[in-house]
Write a structure and sequence with these properties.
Order of helices and strands: HHHHH
Shape: globular
Number of helices: 5
Number of strands: 0
């Protein structure tokens, strides 16, 4: 039974890794110039089309003009590629977890910050049910798909 579980897990991991598109960069490299992506299948989740509208509603107070956390990810795509600068961020925002010496990018940090109820700040998003000001599970899934796709513009 155990070997069956390990085999199933290994096959799932191989299948998932083979479906991931190439990562993009702030200048649009890697996945084209910010277009709709390649081939058939589901539409590629992008910052401009899918994620920015969520950030504008849920994160705009602090991350569009104030530069809280040293970024404006709500309006500035390039800020998704800045490194996390605060050791107060959740451990999921660091490649080395609780040691917090190897920061991920702001874009990569959005998901742990949302999932751990850390963002939006002071909205009680760690409560169940989450208040309406918080990122919904459906919105969280969009952000997760964007990060998994390499954060394309």
């Amino acid at each position: 039974m155990r070997s069956l579980s390990i085999t199933a897990f290994a096959l799932a991991a191989v299948a998932a890794s083979g479906c991931a598109p190439d990562a993009t960069t702030p200048d649009g490299g890697g996945g084209g110039s910010g277009g709709a992506g390649g081939g058939g299948g589901a539409a590629l989740v992008t910052y401009t089309k899918d994620v920015k509208p969520i950030f504008m509603v849920k994160c705009a107070t602090c991350h569009t003009t104030e530069g809280a956390g040293a970024h404006n990810i709500g309006t500035t795509y390039a800020d998704a590629f800045k490194l996390v600068m605060t050791p107060d961020a959740p451990s999921g925002c660091f490649k080395d977890g609780d040691a917090k010496t190897m920061p991920k990018t702001i874009g990569e940090c959005t998901l742990p910050a949302i999932m751990e109820g850390w963002m939006p700040m002071a909205m009680g998003c760690f409560n169940t049910p989450r208040p309406p000001e918080c990122v919904s599970v459906a919105e969280q899934d969009v952000v997760a798909a964007w990060i998994a796709a390499g954060m394309p513009q």
